[in-house]
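Support request, please re-run this one:
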Amino acid sequence: MQESDDGFTSYMAARWPTLVRSLVTLGCEPHEAEDVAQAALLRCYASWERVCRADDLDAYVFRTVLNVWNKSRRRRWWNERPVELLPERLEPEGMDVADTRATIEHALGGLSPEHRAVLTLRFVADLSEQQTATVLRVPVGTVKSRTARAIEQMQRSHAREELT
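Re-run finished. Output below.
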């Protein structure tokens, strides 16, 4: 059992920032993203032996994260429990982070949810095309075409903004 706990702990430590950053990019507030990631990882921990047997561990976990996030949109209460110590901030303080985040949110804001999800999983979560297809439950070709169209749409939008 200790070996399983160590495997989960090392996986969680390595992927936590990416999970939270991906959720923020999808539209969650940072505190909400942490709650969703924590709830998803709690689900994964409860059945870690089965999760480890998945063909693609990252795709399995990100699918769980998206399921928890979608479910959270349907209900209000998060089953939160008070804790004595609050976690540290994931982001450094400063205008550079805020400016970068605002620019990214603005660029992604004009995209459809499907395009935003594909770009987030591919470039923020750094999943492969195959992993992204598994998470979104679409063919790899759909991931490729959505990625290309989303990038093209962002470039057109950027060019329009520069003209005005």
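The chain is about 75% helix and 0% strand. The longest helix spans residues 2-26.
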